[in-house]
Design brief:
The protein is globular. The protein is of the alpha/beta class. Strand 4 and strand 5 form a beta hairpin. It contains eight helices and six strands. The chain has a six-stranded mixed sheet, with helices on both faces.
Amino acid sequence: SDLILGVTGDDRNRLLQLARDAADPNWVAPGVDKQLAALIEDERTARRIVNVQPLLIPGLLQTEEYARSIMVGAGTTRGQADQRILVRLGRQSVLTRRRPPEFLAIIGEHALRYPQCESDVMAEQLQHLLEMSARPNLSILVLPINIGYSPALEGPFVLLEFDRGDPVVQQEHYRATTTLTDSRDVRDYQTAVDVIVTQAMSPEESAAFIAGLMKETEHIE
C-alpha cells in the first residue's frame, strides 16, 4: 500500500527512501539500532536463511497490515509502527531480488490457526504466504501443534549461512535480539533445524494446509 498512515510529505518520502536503502551495504538510518543494522547486513549477504517462528509469521514474510497489527498490539504507536514497517518491507526485497538467498520458513500451526489480528488481515497474510511459497528460492513448512516436543518450542530464531564467513544465529526475544557466533552453539541450532524439518509438514502439505485455513477464514467472514 502506498498509504502510510499518519506520515505525509517529506517525512513519508524520507521513510520510503530508508526502506529502499535497506539492502545497501552502507545503509544507516536514524533510530535503527546496531542489532537490526547487523541483521539487515547478514540478510543481504546470506546464502541461506532459516527462520523458525512457532507463534508468529516470520518478519520477511509479513504483509504490511499483519505487521502493523502485531506492532500496534504490542504497544507501538502508529507512527513508530509505520517507520518500522517501511524498514521491514525494505528488508523483504532480499527475497525477490536477482540471485536471492535460499529462504526456509518454518511456521508453527498456532501462528496460522490462532492469529493475533483481524480475519481479513490474516486472509491477506495467508494468501501472501501461498504466493511466496511458489518462488523457487523459498520454502514454507508448517509445524503441527500435536507433534510433542520440538526444539522450535524453545523460541524463535534465525539461522544465517554464508558463502564466505561462518554461520550465525539470531535469537529473537520480546524486546531484544541476541546474536550467537560460537561454532558449537551454531551447530546445535543447525541440528535443531534438521530435527524441526523432519517434524514439519512437507512444502506441498503446508501449502494445502494454508489453503484450507484460507477457506475457513473466508467462511468466518
